[in-house]
Automatic annotation (TrEMBL):
Known function: The UvrABC repair system catalyzes the recognition and processing of DNA lesions. UvrC both incises the 5' and 3' sides of the lesion. The N-terminal half is responsible for the 3' incision and the C-terminal half is responsible for the 5' incision.
Protein name: UvrABC system protein C
Source organism superkingdom: Bacteria
Compartment annotation: Cytoplasm
A GO term for molecular function: excinuclease ABC activity
Primary location group: cytoplasm
Classification lineage: Bacteria, Pseudomonadati, Bacteroidota, Flavobacteriia, Flavobacteriales
Length: 597
């Protein structure tokens, strides 16, 4: 990305949460940071004078910016921690030590303990988290312990030792914080049921616990113990807001390489996420220019070999979106749901963001390439025989048949050509008949273009469904243009795209650039037509107020408006100034008519 100027890199950053990485001209890592809004945060480095000299020096050295998009701000915090420890950037200090975010550990033992830890040990224990705050961990532990009394001692509570009476209950038992499994006062089956409930809580299933706390809160409130009730309410709020799932750190997923691909007619974008010890430690997106019509499978297979070699990855498992032929010794997983699918989705999301950034950068650096790509994509998406370099869109406007008008807007290379916009007064239709109005305006537009030997569009877009499309086709038939110009209709309700003689509509992806251009055309035609219709209606209302006066016709009304600019000024005019325009006789009638009012 370093070949792209820094200001263009900044302008194309997404506004999503994520982690940004600053690199110098030698591609050395300078700094890793997190952001709730990547574009806003990164831009702030370049938009203000910094108080600290270290920051000023950092900004001067920045040559390129990379980033990883994540779902939430908490995920950004965790990923920042991982990357700082892995990459050890020169200008990061705070997180270079071995301190990690806290986890909750369900110890792999008989009568398991449940406690916070910062170390994940592979001993068969279950780990939940990580959490971005130890306060959250403590509150959650307090909540669990207030509902389910658990042991805190580290005794080996084997059946033999309990039966032998080796242990005695401690103070925790007498305080009611433990039910005394060490002396056999609580059975293993009963304790295990508690543990299963706790698993549900830390996984985010709080329904039973929240119900219990609500009961406690109401009971305390009824007994006028409001301070205690408020504490319970705070705990309920924490439970409701608590989120345990983290895509960034997951101890269930160890050393894995994740690959995803997004492609169009000309380019493919492959994202690579590297996970080590359950944490994302690297993200890289590669752009590949297609030479022929290569399949995504072939491109991804080639990219996997190159990327793994470049980053010297020795992971034995790959997560990919579809079946691939890879070298022996590698396990290929195609995730369908759960944590693995979330990791793959995150990779795909970063590929999509990278693709969009490249599009935005190309718009600035190489607008012709951007236009060519859009036109090629539209040709493919709308099944055209030629690229739609010249598109025209039609829309009708009327209110219960009054002042019927139509608008035609023209786009060249995907952009409005406003000087070629045209509006039409409907001449042959009476009453609210959109179909007949569409037939008339399409006929008039292309009859004139034929007569004047003007170039015809490659695509006509009709604002409306099958009815309006059929009406427009009638005019093309009369003019002998059927089959020479592609024509489609777009219905507003679900954005269905209709083709001639095809009852089944086409639904384009809501994020498709082809659909966005068609929607832009439709909205422009509607705006242009509505503006003309309002002006005509307003003008008609003004004229009718003047023409209602005895002896004042359309010409006289126009003459007065041209001179006085508005009906209000005509009303306020003196009889002498009116006489200068329309003569003494008419001036007297106009003057007296308004005075009677």
């Amino acid at each position: 990305m370093s070949e792209i100027p820094l200001n263009i890199q900044l302008s194309s950053l997404p506004t999503s949460p994520g982690v940004y990485q600053f690199y110098d001209s030698n591609d050395g890592i300078l700094y890793v940071g997190k952001a709730k809004n990547l574009k806003k945060r990164v831009s702030s480095y370049f938009n203000k004078n910094h108080e600290y000299g270290k920051t000023r020096v950092l900004v001067k050295k920045i040559s390129s910016i990379k980033h990883i998009v994540v779902p939430t701000e908490s995920d950004a915090l965790l990923l920042e921690n991982n990357l700082i420890k892995e990459l050890r950037p020169r200008y990061n200090v705070l997180l270079k030590d071995d301190k990690s975010y806290p986890w909750l550990c369900l110890k792999n033992e008989r009568f398991p303990r449940f406690f916070p830890t910062r170390r994940v040990i592979k001993d068969g224990s279950e780990y939940y988290g990580p959490y971005t705050s130890m306060k959250t961990v403590r509150i959650l532990l307090d909540l669990i312990k207030s509902v389910y009394p658990l042991r805190t001692c580290n005794y080996d509570l084997s059946a033999e030792k309990i039966n032998a009476g080796k242990y005695k209950v401690c103070l925790e038992y007498h305080l009611g914080n433990c039910k005394g499994p060490c002396e056999g006062h609580q059975t293993f089956a009963e304790y295990d049921r508690q543990i299963e409930d706790i698993r549900q809580i830390v996984k985010g299933n709080f329904k039973s616990s929240i119900t219990y706390f609500k009961g406690q809160m109401k009971m305390l409130a009824a007994e006028m113990r409001f301070e205690e009730a408020q504490k319970i309410k705070d705990k309920i709020d924490v439970l409701k807001n608590y989120q345990v799932k983290s895509t960034i750190v997951n101890p269930k997923i160890s050393n894995v390489d994740v690959f995803s691909i997004i492609s169009d007619n000309s380019f493919a974008y492959i994202n690579f996420l590297q996970l080590a010890h359950g944490s994302i430690i690297r993200s890289h997106t590669m752009e590949i220019k297609k030479k022929l019509e290569e399949q995504d499978e072939d491109l991804l297979e080639l990219a996997i070999v190159e990327i793994r070699e470049r980053f010297k990855s020795d992971s034995k498992e790959l997560y990919v979106p579809f079946k691939l032929a890879v070298s022996t010794g590698l396990k290929v997983t195609i995730p369908k749901l759960g944590d693995k699918k979330r990791i793959l989705d995150l990779s795909e999301r970063n590929a999509k963001f990278f693709r969009q950034e490249r599009f935005n950068q190309i718009k600035i650096i190489d607008p012709d390439r951007h236009t060519n790509r859009i036109m090629a994509q539209m040709k493919k998406d709308i099944r055209l025989s030629a690229e739609p370099r010249h598109i025209e869109c039609f829309d009708n406007s009327n209110i219960q048949g009054s002042n019927p008008v139509a608008a035609c807007v023209v786009f060249k290379d995907g952009k409005p050509s406003k000087k070629e916009y045209r509006h039409y007064n409907i001449k042959t239709v009476t009453g609210p008949d959109d179909f007949a109005s569409m037939e008339e305006v399409v006929y008039r537009r292309y009859k004139r273009l034929q007569e004047e030997m003007q170039p015809l569009p490659q695509l006509i877009v009709i604002d409306g469904g099958k009815g309006q499309l059929s009406s427009a086709l009638k005019s093309l038939d009369i003019l002998g243009l059927r089959g020479k110009i592609a024509i489609i209709g777009i219905a507003k309700r679900l954005e269905e795209i209709y083709f001639p003689e095809d009852s089944i509509p086409l639904y384009l992806d809501k994020k498709s650039e082809s659909l966005k251009i068609i929607q832009f055309l439709r909205n422009e035609a509607h705006r242009f037509g509505i503006t003309f219709h309002r002006n005509k209606r307003s003008k008609g209302a003004i004229n009718s107020e003047l023409e209602g006066i005895d002896g004042v016709g359309e010409k006289t009304a126009q003459q007065l408006l041209k001179k006085f600019k508005s009906v209000k000024r005509v009303k306020e005019a003196t009889i002498e100034s009116l006489s200068q325009e329309v003569g003494a006789s008419k001036a007297k009638k106009i003057y007296e008519s308004f005075r009677k009012e």
